[in-house]
Amino acid sequence: MTIEVRVPTLGESVTEATVATWFKKPGDAVAVDEMLCELETDKVTVEVPSPAAGTLGEIVAAEGETVGVDALLATIAEGAGAAAAPAPAATAAPAAPAPAAGGADSVDVMVPTLGESVTEATVATWFKKVGDTVAQDEMLCELETDKVSVEVPAPAAGVLAEIVAPEGTTVDAAAKLAVISGSAAGVVAAPAAAPAPAAAPAASGAKDVENAPSAQKAMAAAGLSADQVTGTGRDGRVMKEDVQKALAAGITAAAPAQPAAAAPRAPVSADDTAREERVKMTRLRQTIARRLKDAQNTAAILTTYNEVDMTEVMALRKEYKDLFEKKHGVRLGFMSFFTKACIHALREVPEVNAEIDGTDIIYKNYVHMGVAAGTPQGLVVPVIRDADQMSFAEIEKAIGEKGKRARDGKLSMAEMQGGTFTISNGGVYGSLMSSPILNPPQSGILGMHKIQDRPMVINGEIKIRPMMYLALSYDHRIVDGKGAVTFLVRVKEALEDPRRLLMDL
After folding, report:
1. Residue 476: active-site member
2. CA atoms of 193 and 185, how far apart (whole Å)
3. Which of 96, 245, 426, 499 is the most buried (most CB within 10 A)?
């Protein structure tokens, strides 16, 4: 029996969509509600689940095609046809690399869904090597995309028979990463097949093969050249484990290695080169660099400054922090006060919460607050959606949870999209004053800084007060100076007298 897969209802006033990504290919087995493809409209991204279990037959609408509502996307074969179809597909994948590696027991490890508008990724790290036993859902490797890191779990238990995409390889959204063999033959064959690439380093030494980034870093740290390490990766690539084996074997840096590497950079001395380390930028860092430069090139960025006396906020926090934590199970920090103060100011100056779309201005009647977070991989901005509808406790919980996920590299694409305004806290690193850069397409970003005791004149008397510099960077194309200054003054007033937040003043 053949089941048709059709375009679902796309939403009010949306009549067509573009097929962005197919997660399955003809011949693949699919389960009920398993995601088949992703559609993009001018407003949202829609995932299309499988209406039945079976085998994906024909893909009618290929990636890039525009389809209307209820249009036919693909067909799914049920019953006997479905049971028979996976057999050729399953045996075909391992047949080319190693006929003895498992036959019908072999499972392909594919690139998982990368998220909206992400079409490729780079294989950053393999946690397993060929011949290792893996459990189902055990992490096999980590991929880096333009925005997030994605861990790839094992789809089944067995033995890692082949790594198709080694470290440093750029793969598309439907690529095969590896093959897992679950049969006894696979367990025996995988280690036996491993020496084959190792036997070819001499023959492939003259080839232009890109070594794994982790291996390049390890060789640079040890002062080794690629010629001194025997590569066991695909096509003779040097892997991190190969460098470790070379060091364990007592291989040391050869004298001519450094001058040879420094030859293309004549102005740099050999001594300086020996103390340098060249590491390829991660895709996340490349995207950060590109987006920030685009912001500078596109927006008319200005920054206005003010300072806030944190006495009242600190006193309020000190008085209620124990009760707050006891009731809500989360610590009361400063970020919830600043978030509330910004929401209060955005209501009065809505253009700071707007964005430019061509010749139109889009005013947002909601606040999706971006909270910049520094991670080992780079700066990310998780978004707290509908922050204007949240209480202090809900904001603190959301900030804590998003921050932890950011540091662990677990943020999804959706969690970093759609922000309308951003808060960046450089004060946690000791910054006294800075000019934050816009997070496009947003029109405003608030920079928080270090709280520092300073002498202030209060009612004609000099007193020591905990002061913080605030900086608002804004897009002057949409926000005038008056609006920017008014916004920052309202934030200052709300923090210096938190009762104004309660009274909505």
Report:
1. yes
2. 12
3. 426
Torsion, Cα 261 263 266 268, to 10 degrees, reads 20
Distance of CA 235 to the CA centre of its chain: 29
| Helix runs in 276-366, H state only | 283-298, 311-328, 335-348
How do strand 301-309 and strand 461-475 relate by DSSP bridges? antiparallel
User: Can you give 213-251 as a three-state secondary structure string?
Assistant: HHHHHHHHHHCCCHHHCCCCCHHHCCCHHHHHHHHHCCC
Q: What is the 3-state secondary structure (H, E, C) of 388-447?
A: HHCCHHHHHHHHHHHHHHHHCCCCCCHHHCCCCEEEEEHHHHCCCCCCCCCCCCCCEEEE
Cross-strand pairs, 302: 474
28 is catalytic: no
- Whole-structure pTM value: 0.50
Domains of the chain (ranges, CATH numbers):
1-84 (2.40.50.100), 198-274 (no CATH), 284-503 (3.30.559.10)
Q: Is 255 helix (H, G, I), strand (E, B) or coil?
A: coil
Looking at 33, 42, 137, 480, which residue is catalytic? 480
Could you give the 3-state DSSP secondary structure of residue 144?
strand
Q: How many residues does the chain have?
A: 505
Strand pairing class (444-448; 421-425): parallel
Catalytic residue among 132, 476, 497, 504: 476
Which tokens go with 483?
Answer: 């609006």
CB atoms within 10 A of CB 462: 9
Residues 203-255: pLDDT tens digits?
333 444 566 656 666 777 677 777 778 877 656 767 767 777 777 776 665 54
pLDDT in tens, 4-42: 888 887 765 667 888 888 888 888 888 888 888 888 776
Give the helix/strand (H/E) hosting 466. strand 461-475
Question: Which conformational region is residue 301 in: left (phi greater than 0), alpha (psi within -120 to 50 degrees), or beta?
Answer: beta
Instruction: Give me the helices (H) in 168-310, please.
Output: 184-193, 195-198, 201-204, 213-222, 240-248, 257-262, 270-274, 283-298
| Angle formed at CA 119 by CA 113 and CA 120, multiple of 5 degrees | 90
Tokens of 428: 């946690």
Residue 424 half-sphere exposure toward CB, CA atoms < 13 A: 21
